[in-house]
Each structure stands twice: as structure tokens, then as C-alpha cells.
Specification:
Mean pLDDT: 97
Distance between the termini: 21 Å
Bound molecules: nicotinamide-adenine-dinucleotide, 3-isopropylmalic acid, manganese (II) ion
Shape: globular
Number of domains: 2
Strand content: 15-25%
CATH architecture of the largest domain: 3-Layer(aba) Sandwich
Structural class: alpha/beta
Order of helices and strands: EHEHHEHEEEEHEHEHEHEEHHH
Helix content: 40-55%
CATH superfamily of the largest domain: Isopropylmalate Dehydrogenase
Low-confidence stretches: none
CATH topology of the largest domain: Isopropylmalate Dehydrogenase
Largest sheet: 10 strands, mixed
Strand order of the largest sheet: 2-1-3-12-11-4-5-10-8-9
Oligomer: single chain
Radius of gyration: 21 Å
CATH class of the largest domain: Alpha Beta
Number of strands: 12
């Protein structure tokens, strides 16, 4: 029996509420494979205690694991630009996890807030650049606190960085049923970075004649997600554009509590892939046990798929869809009254029922 070693970083706020529930679901669905979890208490509380978001040698501690499951980072006690940079971005950049994969789909029984649009209309896969762009952290502040203050936040786009994420997106589009790729640009205003982005996209497109490519300025693409979502399939975007568009995608799904994501390095291994819901620590609802665990559970299914445990991944998704399809158990973000734990327990029950039915069948 293969045992996968999973590092858990629940983090802050609702991260600490949804990760334990996702772990229970993973344990129920694991089937033939073993899962060995180790929890790291890194995050804002750890920072208040130790002065750091994670240990200096934290990346070395994570490196031997097969995957990382992370909840959310952020608490009012630590400035967001510190907590995020010193933990989340440190891991993404440190392991060069240059693809952030974010599916946008409507689960059975749930409705998109878009009138008249169903699961058939809304099915997108965002491939977000995750290792450079606006997030590179290059810049500075000058004449701080004076009337002449200057802040420079440099965006860095490298040909290599742009090309690898665009090629990954083409690969995904090639394998997708509709074989369509949309690229988010803004080359009308950003004449260096986004013109390079478009050039690399057009050059890569020659190697994928079977993929239909559309280039949209990001503002128009945001509108298109609302007005014509059925025209979108795989979407590739820079780091910041992808961040913004995928919260919009989560809203199309019905809640930020639904959106899953995977941080991957498809071409090498500097460290384990990191799986995290798209949402943050939600301080406005943290501590009440009402966070929607769907994003974390769906994220766990992405993790199992990545680990080669396709059957376990499917067990999780089928159970998740069975529960949403019944429309009985819903957390408050979806208009229900159920708790985080009640929702996860319903998913686990579906997994158990399915495995009982399987063993009865033979
Ligand atoms: P957020 O995603 O935490 O919350 C936005 C809104 O969505 C809130 O009203 C919240 O209650 C709701 N929401 C989010 N997840 C939900 C869930 N699972 N169930 C029900 N409702 C949910 O974003 P924010 O308020 O902009 O940020 C809060 C903190 O989280 C900040 O510190 C921010 O830096 C951090 N953050 C971290 C991550 C991450 O760790 N990956 C992502 C985004 C934001
Ligand atoms: C996300 C988050 C992060 C991002 C923040 C917390 C830095 O919003 O994962 O979408 O912008 O990447
Ligand atoms: Mn975001």
C-alpha cells in the first residue's frame, strides 16, 4: 500500500475550520492508499508567538512531503502584506509552483447568480500564472510619509515564465472537450509586459493548431464572464489578472466558499504541490463553525488526483455532488443553516454508502 505524506497548514481563521473537515473526508475516501498527515501550526498566531510566519527552514521541512494542503492565511493582528508574503507567496515562489489551476463549475443542486445560466453554460478552467508578474515583490517606497512619497511596485514578466504557463494552458485546452483557450491581456495599455504576453501566446499557438485561441483585454473578459460565460473554456491569465478573475469565477459558482485551487510545477520538482481553497481566512465569520467546506473538500479531490489516486478523487467529487444535489445541507453562504461539520459529515456518509454499495456488488 502506497502511503502519501501530506503536510497540513490550516493557517488562520476559517482555514482552521475547513482543513480538519477536509481531512476527515480524505480519510474516508482514501480507500486503498494510505495518507500520513503532519500538521504545521504556521500562520498569524505563530507569528505573534515567534515573530515569523513560518520557520526560516520551513521550506526544507515541507520539501519531503508529497503534497501540502493549506487552509488560509491572514488575521487582523498581522498586516496582510506581511502574512501573505512570508508564508503563502514564500511557498509558491520557493517551490516555483508556476501554475495555479482554478476550476469554475456549478455543482449539482446549486445555482449561479446569473439568471438563466446553468452548469452547462459555466464550465471554465483558469490557468493563473503563479510565479512572477505583479506579485514578484520588486519595488520600494521612497520619501516615506512625506508629501513627495513615491511607491514603485514593479511587475516582472520573463519570456520563460510567460511561455511555460501559456504552454501548460494550451496542453489543458488541447485535452479539454471544447479545445478553446482564452487569454487575458491588457496590451492596449501595458505596452511591454502584455505585448510580450501576446507575442508568446501567438507563437505557442502555432504548435497547437487544434486549439481555438481568443485574446481578450482583461476588462472585456471580466464582462464576458457575466454576459457570455458559455464562450469560455480554458483561460490563461497573469498572476494579478488571474487572481481577480477567479474571485469573479467563485461568485459565478455561487460563493467564494466553493472555489478550489492547485499550485503546481508541471515541469519539475523543487518541492511538493500546494492545494488551497481560493478563499481567505474570512475573519467576518471565523470561529462560528459556519464556513463552507466545499472549496477545501474540492481542493482535496484535486490533491488526490495529483497524487495519482484518481478513484479516491472521484469518490470525493461524487459524494460532494450527491450532497449538493440533494439541496438539504447548505452552509449560510448558500442560504442554508448547516455548519461546516454537518456538511462534511454528509459528504463522509455518502462516501461510506458508496463503498458499502461497492463491496455488496462484488
Ligand atoms: P475572504 O475570502 O477571506 O472573504 C471574503 C468574503 O467571502 C467574506 O465575506 C467571507 O466571509 C466570505 N467567505 C470566504 N470564504 C468563505 C467560506 N468558505 N464560506 C463562507 N463564506 C466565505 O477574503 P478577504 O476578506 O479579502 O480576506 C480576509 C483575509 O484572508 C485577509 O487577511 C487576506 O489577506 C486573506 N486571504 C488569504 C488567502 C489565502 O490564504 N489563500 C486568500 C485570500 C485572502
Ligand atoms: C489567492 C489570494 C492570494 C493571491 C493573496 C492572499 C496573496 O487572494 O490565492 O487568490 O492573491 O494570490
Ligand atoms: Mn485571490
Amino acid at each position: 500500500m502506497k502511503t502519501h505524506r501530506i503536510a497540513l497548514i490550516p493557517g488562520d481563521g476559517i482555514g482552521k475550520e475547513v482543513v480538519p473537515e477536509a481531512v476527515k473526508v480524505l480519510e474516508a475516501a482514501a480507500g486503498g492508499c494510505g495518507l500520513a498527515f503532519e500538521t504545521f501550526d504556521w500562520g498569524c498566531e505563530y507569528c505573534l508567538r515567534t515573530g515569523r510566519m513560518m520557520p526560516e527552514e520551513g521550506l526544507d521541512q515541507l520539501r519531503p512531503f508529497d503534497a501540502v494542503l493549506l487552509g488560509a492565511i491572514g488575521h487582523p493582528s498581522v498586516p496582510d502584506h506581511v502574512s501573505v508574503r512570508d508564508l503563502l507567496l514564500r511557498i509558491r515562489f520557493g517551490f516555483d509552483l508556476y501554475v495555479n489551476l482554478r476550476p469554475v463549475e456549478i455543482l449539482p443542486g446549486l445555482e449561479s447568480p446569473l439568471k438563466g445560466k446553468t452548469a452547462d453554460d459555466i464550465r471554465m478552467l483558469f490557468v493563473r500564472e503563479n510565479s512572477e508578474g505583479e506579485y514578484c515583490g520588486v519595488g520600494g517606497r521612497f520619501k516615506r510619509g512625506t508629501a513627495d512619497e513615491v511607491a514603485v511596485q514593479q511587475a516582472v514578466f520573463t519570456r520563460k515564465g510567460v511561455e511555460r504557463v501559456i504552454r501548460y494552458a494550451f496542453e489543458r485546452a488541447r485535452k479539454s472537450p471544447r479545445k478553446r483557450l482564452a487569454s487575458a491581456t491588457k496590451s492596449n495599455a501595458l505596452q511591454f509586459s502584455m505585448v510580450l504576453w501576446d507575442e508568446v501566446l501567438r507563437a505557442a499557438a502555432r504548435d497547437y493548431p487544434e486549439v481555438a485561441v481568443s485574446i481578450y483585454h482583461v476588462d472585456a473578459l471580466a464582462a464576458r464572464m457575466i454576459t457570455n460565460p458559455e464562450s469560455l473554456d480554458v483561460v490563461v491569465a497573469s498572476n494579478l489578472f488571474g487572481d481577480i478573475l477567479t474571485d469573479l469565477g467563485a461568485a459565478l459558482q455561487g460563493s467564494l466558499g466553493l472555489a478550489a485551487s492547485a499550485n503546481l510545477n508541471p515541469s519539475g520538482r523543487l518541492g511538493p504541490a500546494v492545494f488551497e481553497p481560493v478563499h481567505g481566512s474570512a475573519p467576518d465569520i471565523a470561529g462560528r463553525g459556519i464556513a463552507n467546506p466545499i472549496a477545501a473538500i474540492w481542493t482535496s479531490a484535486l490533491m488526490m488526483e495529483h497524487l495519482g489516486e484518481t478513484a479516491a478523487s472521484e469518490r470525493i467529487m461524487q459524494a460532494l455532488k450527491a450532497v449538493t444535489g440533494e439541496k438539504k445541507i447548505r452552509t449560510p453562504d448558500l442560504g442554508g443553516k448547516s455548519t461546516t461539520e454537518e456538511f462534511a459529515a454528509a459528504v463522509i456518509e455518502k462516501i461510506h454508502n458508496a463503498s458499502r454499495a461497492e463491496s455488496a456488488a462484488g
